[in-house]
Structures are given as structure tokens and as C-alpha cells.
Design goal:
Layout (H helix, E strand, L loop, with lengths): L2 H12 L3 E4 L2 H8 L8 E5 L2 E6 L4 H7 L3 E4 L6 H8 L5 E4 L5 H10 L4 E4 L2 H6 L4 H22 L8 H14 L4 E2 L4 E4 L20 E6 L1 E3 L2 E2 L2 E6 L5 H19 L7 H14 L11 E3 L6 E5 L12 E4 L2 E4 L3 E4 L2 E5 L4 E3 L11
Parallel strand pairs: 1-5, 3-4, 5-6
Antiparallel strand pairs: 1-2, 2-3, 7-10, 8-9, 9-12, 10-11, 13-14, 15-18, 16-17, 18-19
The chain binds zinc ion (2 copies).
């Protein structure tokens, strides 16, 4: 069913007349508007409007699939919204709207404001063919940037220089930008799962973890590779092999009907067998789309059944504080029969 029709049905079930969508990823999903931080969608049985301001008249009319309405200059947007639904009950996104805006809307609408949670996020779980095409393209540019960096990465470069080269390549090859602050974590810094690139210089004999992705039409790619700069010890190689085994087994287990929790447990079990219990300090994976982290989760704590059209990353890692870390991450989409890998970069340990 069309997402707007589904939302209208839920709205009727709640006994409300109009729905205000304010979370940027949800605004973009429903309207196609690429500056969703400055837009809102107002949906009712009368239709759906993209509300934005005068700076975006041309852009919004070019991009929006919904009728565009421009908020009068100087008028706060919540006031504009309230004036468009006089006497009606307005449903809002509690996951996004601030308490202050919630109270302001309530005041203007005589208290007739009700909270909803996760409605659009739930629709966004299942990607359409058009969304998958953007994700495939984002993953393709990410792979290309990785093969480019293999030819230029060397001891002596700073982590920041590596990150800049990755970003420049991705933008030159069609990305809107990077999916998130690029992680380049070398030597002991690789033990920080979110070690964004620093001024540290790469040194021979270290492992270096790159976690990055291209963004295309608002859709994010996400991939991690860990590589060796010159010869590394047999113990580091053993760590790498254990993470790779866990990653490949978990990836191969992806299929519709499987629970994210059991896939997480599978990877965690393989690391435990290698004596690495306790060093895998985050969930196995997450959905990716208009947000870098969205549903579903592959995690120890959340049970979530996988369905065709869902995207997931599979990214086991081990982190030994002060010493070293290894993470390997691919992006995949669940299909009717199993999964399709969107990241294609090689995963055998690369010794550069
Ligand atoms: Zn990542
Ligand atoms: Zn990730």
C-alpha cells in the first residue's frame, strides 16, 4: 500500500484528523525534498502538503512529490501548522518533536495534540526498488573508494589525510557526501569502535580500520575493512581470522524469517570459541537507508524478524583496549530467498 494511505489508516485508528511529520528522514522519505531539516509534511484526508519556507521555493517545487506550501516570512512554523488544522486533532511524531514545540502546538490547538511513535520508521524498514538502487550506487562508490585508497595508503600518512582522500574520491565519483564522520583508526586507536580519524600517523606493523560510506540521494552506504600495514604478528592474524569467520557465518545466515537476535548470537558464539568473549562490545548490525542507523537491529537484546527488502550491516568486531581492534562490515539487503551483498570489497587480510 502507498505509504500515505497506510498513515491515513493509522491516523483514523487513533481518532486524529491530521498528522504532522517533522523528523527529517521521514519528511524526505514521504516528499523527496532534499533539505528536510527545513521541511514538514502535513497529512490529512484532504491531502498531503510539504511545508517549507521562502528559501526553498524553487528547490521544493522541483523535488517534492507532494504539493508545496510556503510558510509566510517571519511566522513560526508551528503556528503555520496550527492555523492549517483549526479545531482538528493533530497527531505528531513524539520521537522527534521537542517538548517545547509539543506544548506550543497544544496551546494553539486547545490541547488536541496526540503523540505517535515510529509510524514512518516502520514503513521505511522495507526498501522500495528505487531506494535499493540508491543504496547499491552508494555501496558501489564506497567499494571504488576503498580500492582507490589501497593504492595510496602508506605509513607516514595521518589518519585525517586518509579520511580526506576517501571523501574526495567519493564526491568526485558521484556521492552527495560521506555517510558519517569517517573512521580511520590505526594501531592502538583501532581498539576504539568509533575512532574518527585523528592527526595520528600510520606506522608499519599496525592494523588500521577504515569505516566509511558514500551517500547518494540521501541514502547511506556503510562498510568497514581492517588491513595490515606491513607484516603483523601471528596473534593479530588470529584475531583477524576469528572476526572474518564470525562475519562470514553471520552474513551467510541472513534470510527472511530469521531473527536478528539469533544472527547476533551466531557471530558472538564464533568469537567466544576463539577465546574472544567479552571483546565484542556492540551489536552485530543495523539497518541503513535515509539514516545511517535505523531498523532493523541485529543485536543481543532486540528480537526482530528479518523480511525481504530490509537492509542490514553485518559488522562483528573485537576491541582490546590500549592494544588493537579488528572490525569487518558489509552492507546487505534481505531478499525472498536469502540476501544480496551490496558491499563487494575483498575481505581476505590485506598486507600493504
Ligand atoms: Zn560502519
Ligand atoms: Zn555500521
Amino acid at each position: 500500500m502507498n505509504p500515505l494511505a497506510t498513515l491515513l489508516e493509522r491516523l483514523a485508528g487513533l481518532g486524529a484528523d491530521a498528522l504532522l511529520i517533522s523528523a527529517p528522514a521521514n519528511v524526505r522519505y514521504l516528499s523527496g525534498f532534499s533539505s528536510p531539516e527545513d521541511g514538514r509534511v502535513l497529512l490529512s484526508a484532504d491531502g498531503a502538503l510539504l511545508l517549507t519556507d521562502g528559501r526553498y521555493i524553487a528547490q521544493a517545487s522541483e523535488e517534492s512529490r507532494l504539493e508545496v506550501a510556503i510558510t509566510e516570512l517571519g511566522k513560526p512554523w508551528h503556528q503555520d501548522v496550527a492555523e492549517r488544522v483549526p479545531g482538528k486533532t493533530l497527531a505528531v511524531e513524539a520521537d522527534h518533536l521537542t517538548q517545547q514545540l509539543f506544548e506550543q502546538l497544544k496551546e494553539k490547538l486547545d490541547g488536541k495534540v496526540v503523540a505517535t511513535s515510529g509510524w514512518v520508521a516502520e514503513l521505511r524498514l522495507l526498501k522500495t526498488p528505487a531506494e535499493l538502487a540508491h543504496l547499491r550506487e552508494a555501496a558501489r562508490i564506497t567499494d571504488a573508494a576503498f580500492s582507490h585508497i589501497l593504492g595510496v595508503i602508506e605509513p607516514g600518512l595521518s589518519e585525517v589525510e586518509v579520511a580526506l582522500k576517501l571523501e574526495a574520491f567519493m564526491r568526485q565519483h558521484g556521492a552527495d557526501g560521506k555517510s558519517f564522520e569517517i573512521i580511520v583508526a590505526s594501531g592502538p586507536r583501532s581498539a576504539m569502535p568509533h575512532g574518527v580519524a585523528s592527526q595520528k600517523r600510520l606506522a608499519a606493523g599496525e592494523l588500521v580500520t577504515l569505516d566509511f560510506g558514500a551517500k547518494v540521494q540521501g541514502y547511506h552506504a556503510d562498510m568497514t575493512r581492517t588491513m595490515a600495514l606491513g607484516e603483523i604478528s601471528s596473534e593479530l592474524r588470529r584475531l583477524y581470522d576469528a572476526v572474518l569467520r564470525a562475519q562470514e557465518a553471520a552474513l551467510a545466515a541472513l534470510a527472511p524469517g530469521k531473527d536478528g537476535q539469533e544472527i547476533d548470537a551466531l557471530a558472538r558464539g564464533i568469537l567466544a570459541e576463539a577465546g574472544l568473549d567479552g571483546y565484542f562490545s556492540h551489536g552485530l548490525g543495523h539497518g541503513v537507508g535515509l539514516q545511517i542507523h535505523e531498523g532493523p537491529r541485529l543485536s543481543k537484546t532486540i528480537s526482530q524478524v528479518l523480511k525481504p527488502g530490509m537492509t542490514v550491516t553485518v559488522e562483528p568486531g573485537i576491541y582490546i583496549p590500549g592494544l588493537v581492534g579488528v572490525r569487518i562490515e558489509d552492507l546487505a539487503v534481505i531478499t525472498e530467498t536469502g540476501y544480496e551483498r551490496l558491499s563487494h570489497s575483498d575481505k581476505a587480510l590485506m598486507v600493504l
